[in-house]
Specification:
CATH class of the largest domain: Alpha Beta
CATH superfamily of the largest domain: Zn peptidases
Number of helices: 12
Shape: elongated
Number of strands: 15
Structural class: alpha/beta
Radius of gyration: 24 Å
Strand content: 15-25%
CATH topology of the largest domain: Aminopeptidase
Largest sheet: 9 strands, mixed
CATH architecture of the largest domain: 3-Layer(aba) Sandwich
Bound molecules: zinc ion
Length: about 400
């Protein structure tokens, strides 16, 4: 039984939030002096907990259980988006610290220990999931040399701040038997359902398209309706078809978004000659994504063939879904039931480090509620009671996963 200390957990979370404190939130972007300072503080806490702790050359902070040859890896990230919340990433890292600390206090003699990690730049200031990708040896030097922030700052420059640290820590499949990541939900579903514990079924795949329509600009007052080549109207018809049919052909969890619609030249009295729509959809199942894509491309082709406007679709992003390991999800559900908590299974619509780790070792994620569903903003919050309850459940689940791994 791993007995966590709720007061110590909350105290560490609040201490971490002081690095880059911005009102009720935190501004601590990856590889900034504040981010490095926070990571050095974390390394200190990990060392106090009895782990072999350090920072590596890409900024990953890692604490290794020195008493075991195998370990469950628990963690998340401690960088934030600009003016972000205090829990996004931090929650999962401090849960890991608290659980490892409580576990070490029990003596932990089963031969399977707990390692803790805070990955660098999950939020993609320079390169999304840089730390977890580096840890999994899944990033190239060329990508690192090419990466820069939105404001043009180079990743290679930012990495000068950690250049004297040791070579990157790496995933060791012989050692790391599983990866567990707790995170705030960053959405409204747990709160709406009155549940405290979410079990992530998988991380959604994303397909994004730029759809372009070419027509002809004409006077909107003098050109009869049936003689127009209205590029805008073609895309609005497509949008209407998506709204009507995607709910029928997608899964219950499918989400989609028309994030941008542009009409050119863009005047009240000119028939649009060009229209551009940025459209994405997400689901945890590749088969579902394939069905949605096939329909979308059929509609685009039909629309273009029917004329008088040509319509084309170009895929701009394809991120495959990442499945989570059901057996570890079950361990979280059992642990939750022991505390009288009803769980909710839900996909993660956002990306997380587990998306990278899940491709290499058995992985699972657990969510706790976000008040009002708010995130990536300084208003992001979770009640203290939910924070502590989530850590208790995760600690119990980790105990179960350790027992299962030790028996192998
Ligand atoms: Zn996060």
């Amino acid at each position: 039984m791993i007995e966590i200390d709720g007061a110590r957990l909350l105290n560490d979370l609040r201490t971490l939030a002081n690095f880059g404190k911005a009102g009720t939130g935190v501004d601590r972007i990856a590889l900034s002096p504040l981010d490095i300072e926070a990571r050095r503080w974390l390394v200190g806490r990990l060392a106090e907990a009895g782990l072999e702790a350090g920072l590596d050359r890409v900024g990953n902070a890692y604490g290794r259980d020195p008493t075991t040859s195998r370990a469950i890896l628990i963690g998340s990230h401690t960088d934030t988006v600009p003016m972000g919340g205090w829990l996004d990433g931090a929650l999962g890292v401090i849960y890991a610290l608290e659980i490892a600390r409580a576990f070490r206090a029990t003596g932990g003699s089963s031969g399977v220990g707990i390692d803790v990690i805070s990955f660098e730049d999950e939020e993609g200031t320079y390169l999304p999931c840089l730390g977890s990708r580096s840890f999994c040896n899944d990033v190239t030097d060329a990508e690192i040399s090419a990466a820069q922030s939105k404001t043009g700052d180079r990743l290679s420059e930012a990495l000068m701040r950690t250049k004297d640290e040791p070579a990157p820590f790496r995933l060791d499949p012989a050692r790391h038997v599983a990866y567990l990541e707790a995170h705030i939900e960053q959405g409204p579903r747990l709160e709406a359902a009155g549940r405290r514990i979410g079990i992530v079924t998988g991380l959604v795949g994303i397909r994004r398209f730029r759809i372009l329509a070419h027509g002809q600009a004409d006077h909107a007052g003098t050109t009869p309706m049936d003689m127009r080549k209205d590029a805008g109207a073609a895309l609005f018809r497509l949008a209407s078809r998506i709204a009507t049919t995607f709910p029928k052909i997608g899964s219950a969890e499918t989400v989609w978004n028309i994030g941008s619609m542009t009409l050119r030249p863009g005047a009240a009295n000119v028939v649009p000659s060009e229209a551009e729509m940025v459209f994405e959809f997400r689901d945890t199942q590749t088969a579902t994504l394939d069905v949605l894509e096939r329909h979308l491309l059929e509609w685009v082709a039909e629309s273009s063939n029917a004329g008088p406007v040509t319509v084309t679709a170009q895929a701009t992003t394809r991120i495959p879904p990442t499945a989570m390991t059901p057996a570890i999800g079950d361990a979280i559900a059992t642990a939750a039931a022991d505390y009288g908590e009803q769980t909710m299974s839900l996909p993660s619509g956002a990306g997380h480090d587990a998306m990278v780790l899940g491709r290499f070792i058995p992985s699972a994620m657990m969510f706790v509620p976000s008040i009002g569903g708010r995130s990536h903003d300084i208003t992001e919050n979770t009640s203290d009671a939910d924070i502590v309850a989530g850590c208790r459940v995760l600690a119990s689940a980790v105990g179960r996963v350790i027992a299962t791994a030790a028996a192998r």
